[in-house]
Every structure is written in C-alpha cells, then in structure tokens.
Amino acid sequence: VQLVESGGGSVQAGASLRLSCAASGSTIENYCMGWFRAPPGKRREGVAAIERDGRTNYAESAKGRFTIARDNAKTSLDLQMNNLKPEDSAMYFCAARLARSLGPRPLRPSDFGYWGQGTQVTVS
How far apart are CA 54 and CA 69, in angstroms? Predict the structure, then answer.
C-alpha cells in the first residue's frame, strides 16, 4: 500500500487543521492505521491509531483535541486536529500496519511497515 498525506500548513495557536492520507495500491480494510509525528530534533512518536474495526487509541497529548477516522470505502485516513499548540509543530506521517489488531502497544512506530512521506504542521 502507498500512502500520501496532505493538509498540513502553518497556523496560529488555537486553530484547527485536518490532515488526510490517501491510500493506493490496496484497500485499507485489512490494515490498522495510525498518525505519527516527528518534532524537530526528536524521534518519531505516535499520535493516534485506529483498529480495523474503528476502535481508536490516542497519545495523551492528543486526547480531547485530535480525532482519527478511517474510511475504508474511500481508502483514506483523516486526523482532525483542534486547538493546536506550538508543541504540535512537527512533520506528520500516516502509517499502515497489516495486522488483525494493534496489540498492547498501539502507537509504537516500529510496528508499522508502510509510511507516507509526511506533511508539515507548524503552529506559532
């Protein structure tokens, strides 16, 4: 599966952004999906992940502000981000994991085998 992110940009604190990830080469119904980010100079970290059945997992920093959603028919994955903060600034990546379930570590980047190129989010 190939993944392409879009929707990043530069916004002020408190604004909202909606990131989208378009999948091609395969449907995503058999994949667990996730959003990750890499802040400047830091390691990639999990933001949100979604099981094949739609159950979601969020990093503490994302809870209450971010919403992950998948559309298997459209082979797309979205991340709605509200009340953005400067510490949310990062390159955001969409990722897919061919698995029945995310397991006990749903936001571990190394468990995801398919990645997009990323989209930059800057919050000032």
Answer: 8
Share of the chain above pLDDT 70, in %: 100
Intra-chain end-to-end CA distance of the chain, in Å? 34
> Can you say whether the dihedral through the CA atoms of 3, 6, 16, 77 is positive or negative?
negative
What digits encode the pLDDT tens for the residues 7-33? 999 999 999 999 999 999 988 999 999
Cβ neighbours, 10 Å, residue 118: 19
Tokens 């100079």 found at: 41
Query: Which tokens go with 52?
Result: 């094949």
Residue 42 burial by Cβ neighbours in a 10 Å radius (0-12, 13-18, 19+) = exposed
Cα(95)–Cα(65) distance, rounded to whole angstroms?
A: 20
Give the mean pLDDT of 55-78.
95
Contacts of 101 (CB under 8 A, 6+ apart): 32, 51, 52
| Confidence label for 74 from pLDDT (cuts 50, 70 and 90) | confident
